TrEMBL record:
Residues 1-15, 41-60 have a biased composition (Low complexity). PANTHER family: BETA-CAROTENE DIOXYGENASE (PTHR10543), CAROTENOID CLEAVAGE DIOXYGENASE 4, CHLOROPLASTIC-RELATED (PTHR10543:SF46). Belongs to the carotenoid oxygenase family. Residues 16-29 have a biased composition (Polar residues). The lineage of its organism: Eukaryota, Viridiplantae, Streptophyta, Embryophyta, Tracheophyta. This is Carotenoid cleavage deoxigenase 4. Fe cation binds at residues 292, 341, 407, 588. Pfam families: RPE65 (PF03055). Binds 1 Fe(2+) ion per subunit. InterPro entries: Carotenoid_Oase (IPR004294). One of its GO terms (cellular component) is chloroplast stroma. Residues 1-84 are annotated as: Disordered. It comes from Rhododendron kaempferi var. macrogemma. Its cofactor is Fe(2+).
C-alpha cells in the first residue's frame, strides 16, 4: 500500500464513535458478493474426492476435485472459529455502510462481479501438494525443480469496490521431479493476511479501489484509524499483499509486491510452500521494494529500487552476490511521483522510465479516481544512471515523447558503453491502464539512446498487443536476440505467445515475429517463462530451452501446465500436465532449479 493510502487519524476511540445503528439497519444494507461457480472437468471418470465442509473464510461451496488426485500431505481438520467479537461486528457494519451508501462499486474496473468473472475468480481454499497427470509428452529433465506463479486471490470475497491488483498473494507451484509433477497453492502469509485470517474479515481497505473521492477516503481512513488505535493491527508490521512476482537471489526465494518489503518463502521436498517471514535485510531495506528486481546472471548481484508519493520519489539500490543490501541512492531529480513498476540494467547502467502515469493523491481524495492516474501534459523521460553509482550526480534524463512503459524486457550497452538500447512494450493508451485494461494496446519497441549526443531513436519490434515478455534470464543486462511475449486478447486475458527476433529491427523490419502459439478457442494463459536446457553451458544457443505457463480452458473449467519448445518454428508442445484443479489467472512467475531449491 502506498504511504498516502494508509494515513490514519489519531483522535478516535471506539467509545465515542458518533454513529448509531438503527434496529432496521440489517434490512437496509445490501451486501453484494461474488458467486463463484467452477465448471466440473469434462472427464469420463465419475469418481470424485469428497471435500469435507469447513468454516470457509468465504463460505462459498467448492466443487469436487477431478478423479485420481490424492493429496500427498494433508492438514489437520480446521478448528471451528469462534464468532467475531463485538468490535469486529461493529467495524464490519461500518464497512457495509461505506460499501453500500458512501462508495458502492459502480465502475466496472472496481465491481467485483466484473473483475472476478471467469477464471479471475479466486479459488476458495489452499491446495496441499497434489499429484498431477502428464497427459501429453514427457517432462524434460531440465524442468526438475519448481515453476511458481504469483497472483491475486482475495482471502475474502469483496463486498465493496475491488480492483484486480487488490487481492492477497497466492503462489501456485508445480513441483517437477523425474518426470512427475505435483501442484500446490498456498497464500503468502503476509502480516495483513494473518491478521485478517485471525479476525475473520477484511481489516485494511483496498489500495487501488478503496479511496475513490473525499468521502470514501475519509470514511475508510477513519475506520482504519480506529482499528489501529484499538490494536486490531499494527501498520508498521507491513500492509502489503506480496501478490505480484517472485525473485531468487542470495540463495533465498522471495514473494514480492511493491507496496511492502519482501516475504521469504520456501518450497519443500514434497512440493509444499511455506512462508518464512518478512525481510528487511538487517534493517537496511525501508518500506518497500520493486516487484521486478534484476539479477545479473554473471555477477550474482541484484539491482532494485523503490518509489513513493513523497521525495525522493525514486531510490535505487543493489544487493551483492551474497544477498547483502548496499546503500541507498536517492534520486531527487525525479521531481514528480511517477508510477515506476519496472526498470532495466545493462553492464554499465540502470535505466528508469518516468512515464505519464503518476501517483496522484489529490485526484484520489478530491476526485473520484484511483491513487494512480495519467497526466497527458507530462513528457515521458528515460533516466540513465551508472550501475554502481554512489549518488545521483551522474544520472542523465532523456525526453522520449509518447513512450510509456509498465514493464521493461531488457537493455544493454553498445559502442563501448556510449549507447544504451532498451526493449520494452510501449503502452499506447496509457490513460486506460487501471480503469479499462481491455482497451490497452502495448507495442514492443527498441529505444536507442546515444549518451554522447543525447539523441534518442525508436523502432517498432512488433505491432501486436504484447506484454508480460521474458527473455533467457542468462541475458539480463546483455544483448539478446529473442523475446517471448504474451498476446493480449484483450488484456488482461492472454490468448497465446509469440517469439520475437529483436535483431531484425536493426534492418528496419517493423514486425520481428518469428513464431506464434495460440492456446486455442476459449483457452487463456499467462506470462511465459523461459527455462534453458543447459543453463550452465556457455556454448548453448540463446533459444535452446522451453517456455512454460499455466493455461485455463474456460469451456471445460480445466487448467493445465504447458511446456513448449522455444526453439521450434511454432513453439510446439513438449508436454501438457493436467492440473488437479483450476489455477486462476495471475501475474508473474519464476522457475527455480532443483539445485537452487535445495539451497532453501
Amino acid at each position: 500500500m502506498d504511504p498516502f493510502s494508509s494515513s490514519f487519524l489519531s483522535s478516535f476511540s471506539l467509545s465515542n464513535l458518533p454513529v448509531t445503528l438503527p434496529p432496521s439497519t440489517s434490512s437496509v444494507l445490501r451486501i453484494s458478493a461474488v458467486r463463484i461457480e467452477e465448471k466440473p472437468p469434462t472427464s469420463t471418470s465419475t469418481t470424485t474426492r469428497t471435500r469435507t465442509p469447513q468454516p470457509s473464510r468465504r463460505q462459498i461451496p467448492s466443487p469436487p476435485y477431478p478423479t485420481k488426485t490424492k493429496p500427498i500431505s494433508t492438514n489437520p481438520p480446521p478448528t471451528p472459529k469462534p464468532p467475531p467479537s463485538l468490535a469486529v461486528t461493529i467495524f464490519n457494519a461500518f464497512d457495509d455502510i461505506i460499501n453500500t451508501f458512501i462508495d458502492p462499486p459502480t465502475r466496472p474496473s472496481v465491481d467485483p462481479k466484473h473483475v472476478l468473472a471467469d477464471n479471475f475468480a479466486p479459488v476458495v481454499d489452499e491446495l496441499p501438494p497434489t499429484k498431477c497427470t502428464v497427459v501429453s509428452g514427457v517432462l524434460p529433465p531440465c524442468l526438475d525443480g519448481a515453476y511458481i506463479r504469483n497472483g491475486p486471490n482475495p482471502q475474502f470475497l469483496p463486498r465493496g469496490p475491488y480492483h484486480l491488483f487488490d487481492g492477497d498473494g497466492m503462489l501456485h507451484v508445480i513441483r517437477i521431479s523425474d518426470g512427475g509433477a505435483t501442484l500446490c497453492s498456498r497464500y503468502v502469509k503476509t502480516y495483513k493476511f494473518t491478521i485478517e485470517e485471525k479476525t475473520g474479515s477484511p481489516v485494511l481497505p483496498n489500495v487501488f479501489s478503496g479511496f475513490n473521492g473525499l468521502r470514501a477516503s475519509a470514511a475508510r481512513g477513519a475506520l482504519s484509524a480506529v482499528r489501529t488505535l484499538t490494536g486490531m493491527f499494527d501498520p508498521s508490521n507491513g500492509i502489503g499483499l506480496a501478490n505480484t512476482s517472485l525473485a531468487f537471489f542470495g540463495d533465498s526465494l522471495y514473494a514480492l509486491g511493491e507496496s511492502d518489503l519482501l516475504y521469504a518463502v520456501k518450497v519443500t521436498a514434497d512440493g509444499d510452500v511455506v512462508t518464512l517471514g518478512r525481510r528487511d535485510f538487517d534493517g537496511k531495506l525501508f518500506m518497500s521494494m520493486t516487484a521486478h528486481p534484476k539479477v545479473d546472471y554473471e555477477t550474482g548481484e541484484t539491482f532494485a529500487f523503490r518509489y513513493g508519493p513523497v521525495p525522493p520519489f525514486l531510490t535505487y539500490f543493489r544487493f551483492d552476490s551474497e544477498g547483502r543490501k548496499e546503500a541507498d541512492v536517492p534520486v531527487f531529480s525525479m521531481t514528480t511521483p511517477s508510477f515506476l513498476h519496472d526498470f532495466a540494467i545493462t553492464r554499465k547502467y540502470a535505466v528508469f522510465a518516468e512515464i505519464q502515469l503518476g501517483m496522484n493523491p489529490m485526484e484520489m481524495i478530491f476526485g473520484s479516481g484511483s491513487p494512480v492516474g495519467a497526466n497527458s501534459s507530462k513528457i515521458p523521460r528515460l533516466g540513465v544512471i551508472p550501475r554502481y553509482a554512489k549518488d545521483e550526480s551522474e544520472i542523465r534524463w532523456f525526453e522520449v515523447p509518447g513512450f510509456n512503459i509498465i514493464h521493461a524486457i531488457n537493455a544493454w550497452d553498445e559502442d563501448g558503453g556510449d549507447t544504451v538500447v532498451m526493449v520494452a512494450p510501449n503502452i499506447l493508451s496509457v490513460e486506460h491502464t487501471l480503469e479499462r485494461m481491455d482497451l490497452i494496446h502495448a507495442s514492443v519497441e527498441r529505444v536507442r539512446i546515444d549518451l554522447k549526443t543525447g539523441f534518442v531513436s525508436r523502432h517498432p519490434v512488433a505491432s501486436r498487443n504484447l506484454d508480460f515478455a521474458v527473455i533467457n534470464p542468462k541475458y539480463a543486462g546483455r544483448k539478446n536476440r529473442y523475446v517471448y511475449a504474451a498476446i493480449g486478447d484483450p488484456m488482461p486475458k492472454i490468448s497465446g505467445v509469440v517469439k520475437l527476433d529483436v535483431s531484425m529491427s536493426e534492418s528496419d523490419r517493423c514486425d520481428c515475429t518469428v513464431a506464434t502459439r495460440i492456446f486455442g478457442p476459449g483457452c487463456y494463459g499467462g506470462e511465459p517463462f523461459f527455462v534453458a536446457k543447459e543453463p550452465n553451458n556457455p556454448e548453448a544457443e540463446e533459444d535452446d530451452g522451453h517456455l512454460v505457463t499455466y493455461v485455463h480452458n474456460e469451456n471445460t473449467g480445466e487448467s493445465s501446465f504447458l511446456v513448449m519448445d522455444a526453439k521450434s518454428p511454432n513453439l510446439e508442445t513438449v508436454a501438457i500436465v493436467k492440473l488437479p484443479r483450476r489455477v486462476p489467472y495471475g501475474f508473474h512467475g519464476l522457475f527455480v532449479t532443483e539445485t537452487n531449491l535445495k539451497k532453501l
